[in-house]
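Open question from group meeting: does this chain pack into something compact, or does most of it stay loose? Before anyone orders reagents, we agreed to write out a predicted structure and look at it together. Recording both the input and the output here so the notebook holds the full record.
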Amino acid sequence: MCLISELRQQFPILTSKNEDPFIYLDSGATSQKPRQVIKAIDSFYREQNANVHRGLHTLSAEATSAFELAREKIANFLNVQSKEIVWTAGATDSINIIANGIKAQLKQGDVICVSALEHHANIVPWQELCKQKGCILKVLPITKSGILDIKSSVELIFEQKPKIVAISHASNALGNIQPVEKIIEVAHEVEATTVVDGAQAFMHLRPDLRKLNCDFYVFSAHKALGPTGLGVLYGKYDLLNALNPLRFGGEMIKEVSFEQTSFQDAPSKFEAGTPNISGVIGFSAALDFLNSINHNDLLKYEKTLYHYLLTQLNGINGIIIYGDTENNIGTVSFRYKNEHHFDLATLLNGYGIAIRSGHHCTQPLMKSLGIDGTIRVSLAFYNNRDDIDAFIHALKESIDLLEI
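Structure tokens returned:
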């Protein structure tokens, strides 16, 4: 436990704001970055800046080597092959690449299933695909408390026999860890392709994708200590190669003439143009940082911190907590009586508390819960009890102000 708590010192933004209170409880939106990630990006531009895959000179070779080493690292992290890893602009971009790429394989009347807990990024691309191909979007239902109704969801999948099932590994709005293993198993029984949005789960759960057996898995680097503007798309190699590319240009081609063009195999097929080289190298350093942490210790620490937060919140009369508090990545989504979440978030900001308020890009979920939004506190291993105590103190004072 001491080792985990000491890691906080590696995050400059958490230790440099000593004069003003600053409590960061918004890691679900983006994680903070350790020194070695910042240093890796800085060092690349100072000492190694060159384009990859395109030069015979030493600097280009070094940049290419670092770039491809990062691909191998993330493949090892996920227990997959490096040729199954595509660099993208983020989880949203990855889902759009899949939706566009699989379009030619669908026909009118085919069913696509998403869960009611999904981020807009895992709803809208499938809606648009349904419009274009005449497919039907079906929703895996949730309970009144905001937890996937697994029995009804399994029945729906067997009944509808969808071509695609898209589901988040963990809810961005509520923090629920979804029963994706069961959904994937059932989906494969009806020969559906499975797409898992791992944006919230990747850093906390460290998924073994061979064991999970999903067909596609996506996430963003910035939610896992890495830089913004970078994402990962994993796909089983045959399924990945069967997708049509979304973007065309240099790097992804095999041969071009004015009459026709042929494309390379994955992953190059989906990486047109100059990639986010500095971002990949920065994320490579983030993976080194995550690999230095005992994952069981991380899970235990985050779980202890999460339950401490729950206990403190449950001690305040009028707090309503949504979602699955038993299986959770460390996110608490709540309201206070009928007070507007925006008002409470504004007051908390005055105390230096960084949290998130609103619908969290899950408007259909909020509608299902009969609310317009929540306050969301999302923890990471660099938080501690002092952060939670400061938040609870500020929350109680903010509530007092609202009730004057």
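Observations to bring back to the group:
Residues 273 and 355 are 37 Å apart (CA to CA).
The chain has a mean pLDDT of 95.
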